[in-house]
Amino acid sequence: AQKITQTQPGMFVQEKEAVTLDCTYDTSDPSYGLFWYKQPSSGEMIFLIYQGSYDQQNATEGRYSLNFQKARKSANLVISASQLGDSAMYFCAMREATEGTGNQFYFGTGTSLTVIP
Amino acid sequence: DAGITQSPRHKVTETGTPVTLRCHQTENHRYMYWYRQDPGHGLRLIHYSYGVKDTDKGEVSDGYSVSRSKTEDFLLTLESATSSQTSVYFCAIGPPGLAGGETQYFGPGTRLLVL
Question: What DSSP letter does each residue of A51-62 carry, written as one string?
């Protein structure tokens, strides 16, 4: 089974609007972390935001917030007030914190976001 | 920025030739990883290392081998390159431990074309 599922291959959003990128995950480990990365056309991977499985509050970093619904195993990324520079691929990832898992990160297939002026 | 470099950054090679990609870090991280990125697949783990001479296979390890003789260097070898190994290869380091929100840090990537 896929550890991370991103069901939206491509998304469009109008500049200055908010957009939600979906991510669901699968784990039986009670301790895990969820991450979002941005990959612009230049190719580098940029860390955006982190949510721990025991965190009570949804994580926020500037215009990025993570809508964490533990029971549904979803960790959607919300980008508020979209800017043209937000056009990029976005990857959701998970790390299980159990000793012996090799500290592996599992990545989704990504969502390509295009911001329309 | 985390101190991670990859070399070469671009390579064109022919089917059947061996290829070695190098990842070098200056952060003294214990964990290092090699991923490949292909359209529609996201990032897939090839091999990872949890210390000098300690390595393990990832999801797509067939056709690849790795070595780590020093903390700072993690080498990925394609023993006999095939066209299916045309991809972008990313090295990553960290996080330093199991707890907390420490992210992985990625190198700039290597574009490999196997003709």
Answer: EETT-SSPPEET
Q: Cβ neighbours of residue B78 under 8 Å, at least 6 residues apart?
A: B18, B19, B20, B21, B63, B64, B85, B112
- Would you call A64 an interface residue with chain B, using a CB distance cutoff of 8 Å? no
Asked whether B24 and B7 are in contact (CB, 8 A), the reply is yes
Name the stretches of chain B with pLDDT < 70: 1-2, 96-101
Q: What is the pLDDT of residues A46-70, one digit of tens each?
A: 999 999 999 989 999 999 999 999 9
Pairing of strands A46-52, B105-106: unpaired
Strands (E), chain B: 4-7, 10-13, 19-25, 32-38, 42-51, 54-57, 64-70, 73-78, 87-93, 105-106, 110-114
How far is the C-alpha of B102 from the C-alpha of B104, rounded, in Å? 7
Integer angstrom CA distances of residue B68 from A5, B8, B23, B39, B56? 32, 17, 10, 29, 11
- Suggest the residue from B29, B43, B59 to mutate for an interface test with chain A (most A CBs closer than 10 A): B43
| Chain A interface mutation, best of B54, B89, B103, highest count of A Cβ atoms under 10 Å | B103
**Would the pLDDT of A101 be above 90?**
no
User: Do A102 and B103 lie within an 8 Å CB cutoff?
Assistant: no
